[in-house]
Specification:
It is a single chain. The protein folds into two domains: 237 residues, Alpha/Beta hydrolase fold, catalytic domain (Rossmann fold, 3-Layer(aba) Sandwich); 60 residues, no CATH class. It contains twelve helices and eight strands. The termini are far apart. Strands 1-2-4-3-5-6-7-8 form an eight-stranded mixed beta sheet, sandwiched between helices. The longest helix has 20 residues. 41% of the residues lie in helices and 17% in strands. α10 links the parallel β7 and β8. With 324 residues, it is an alpha/beta fold. It comes from Roseivirga pacifica. This is Serine aminopeptidase S33 domain-containing protein. Keywords: Signal.
Length: 324
């Protein structure tokens, strides 16, 4: 093909892609709660002029926004925004929202020492109820990423949720997960591991720790300890066992935060769960090796697409259980 025609074809494809993306209608949703206004956006599929299925997307831990981007990291990865767009391309709407204190939920921010894990459960439940009651949607599913997996398990119980996807979801209580992460780092000296285990034991018993070494301040600073205590009481394998709907448990082989064993433990905890392990996918759902520098670089690169197998597996799961 002549160069001129190749360039013209490339330009045409780029224009068509851009136009298609612009046809997705996005609608802002603001909900009033006891602690202030929380907000998110619904992304509708193209030509959504009748009832459509919808998925509530719940993000992971830390200061993470509705698109899957962390305020603690430079740049964006847009993993959850890309997931919403993938669902829209398959005729499924989605609602993703900002955490308290961020973006559309900035007014609902709390001082860190006053924040509880149950606040996150309550916020997600508010959005789920909104979707269930909204007559524009015929079936509702949940996709929880990382910490959002546990939150999704909690709010799905006893509700009219037709399908649940656990994406890179931990299987152990947060104290056990942290112990594994500390042990997995070869640079952590024995003294640091001993201190971390002592702190975790105290928090597990409901007791806060005032003296924390500088190296552990980011994880165990006094202001975050009440939140950690409230989070530790939940065990993901027990919560997923309570679900009575189709379940997808999906994880990447190069995820440096949540490993394959976590996905396997979740899957065997509920006979309704289907397990998918995606080779070469990391925690932000992108292709990467397990080399830390390369892996971490993907957390700040919005140009990288979602892993192809992940994209297809999640979309096929929700199409099968929400559209049919």
């Amino acid at each position: 093909m002549p160069i001129g025609k190749t360039l013209l074809l490339t330009f045409f494809l780029l224009v068509c892609t851009a136009l298609k993306a612009q046809n997705f209608k996005e609608e802002e949703v603001l909900l009033n709660t006891e602690n202030g206004e929380i907000g998110g956006v619904i992304l509708f599929p193209e030509n959504a002029n009748k009832k459509v299925p919808v998925v509530l997307i719940i993000q992971g831990s830390g200061p993470t926004d509705k698109d899957g981007n962390s305020a603690a990291l430079p740049g964006k990865n847009n993993s959850l925004k890309l997931l919403a767009e993938a669902l829209a391309e398959n005729g499924i709407a989605s609602l993703r929202y900002d955490k308290r204190g961020m973006g559309l939920s900035k007014k609902a921010g709390k001082a860190e020492e006053e924040l509880s894990f149950d606040d996150f459960i309550a916020d997600a439940s508010e959005f789920l109820n909104y979707l269930i009651e909204d007559k524009r949607f015929k079936k509702v599913g949940i996709a929880g990423h990382s910490q959002g997996s546990l939150i999704g398990m909690k709010i799905a119980q006893g509700k009219d949720v037709k399908a649940f996807a656990s994406i890179a979801g931990p299987s152990l209580p947060i104290d056990e997960t942290l112990k594994e992460q500390f042990r997995a780092n070869p640079y952590n000296p024995p003294k640091l591991l001993e201190e971390a285990n002592t702190i975790l034991a105290s928090l597990k018993s409901g007791e806060q720790v005032q003296e924390v070494s500088p190296f552990l301040q980011s994880v165990f600073r006094p202001s975050i300890q009440p939140f950690m205590i409230s989070w530790m009481k939940y065990e993901p394998t027990k919560e997923i066992s309570k679900l009575n709907m189709p379940i997808l448990v999906i994880n990447g082989s190069t995820d440096l935060q949540v490993n394959v064993e976590d996905a396997q433990r979740l899957q065997i905890s509920n006979p309704k769960a289907k397990l998918v392990i995606v080779d070469g996918m990391n925690h932000v759902l992108k292709d990467s090796s397990a080399k830390p520098m390369e892996n971490n670089a993907t957390y700040s690169n919005p140009d990288l697409p979602l892993n192809t197998k992940f994209r297809k597996s999640v979309c096929d799961f929700f199409v099968e259980n929400l559209k049919k």
